Amino acid sequence: MVTGDNLITARSIARKCGILTEEQDGGNILEGKTFHTLVHDNNGVFDQDKFDLVWPSLRVLARSSPSDKYVLVTGIITSKLSKNREVVAVTGDGTNDAPALKAADVGFAMGIAGTDVAKNASDIILTDDNFSSIVKACMWGRNVYDSISKFLQFQLTVNVVAVMLCFIGSCAHGASPLRAVPMLWVNLIMDTFASLALATEPLHLIC
Q1: Burial of 125: CB neighbours in 10 Å, binned 0-12, 13-18, 19+
Q2: What's the pTM value of the predicted model, to 2 decimals?
Q3: Phi-psi region of 26 (alpha: psi -120 to 50; beta: other; left: phi over 0)
Q4: Could you tell me if 203 and 140 are in contact, meaning their C-beta atoms sit under 8 angstroms apart?
């Protein structure tokens, strides 16, 4: 959690949200100035090695500036600690959140309380300012992806079978068992009903 609030307020909110437990403190919550000192060298240049020592245990960043948010996002993206690159999502509503929203892999802006600058810099706008909408959007996105995958598998199966049938029939009997018009009718009927079935498929809960 990255916020401009003071350390005490940030700690209290983080504990209520379950981001920070009673046992976690110290290195798990930092102020912006401390964070800036830890991840930069003596000349004020960002040091990725120093950053990689800080961010894995960081849970709350209080009194942060827009530059701190941007450094945190870009630093995690370029980090080599994980085998696969980390995917970073950022939520924000203010103008100062715009650099981090733009740099993140996915930027979520608030539709009601968000500024125009934040909305323009984001990838997705939450029209109801409700974080649960993010979960619903992911569920619907995965559902659409699964439906497209199923439809492509269906199409490939039907078309490969039709091509093999025509090819084998032509080789065995000298003529295709399916002419052009019957083939078009088969594709029209199969495609129409398959599209309707997959388009009206209910949303599945995917964890």
Answers
A1: middle
A2: 0.70
A3: left
A4: yes
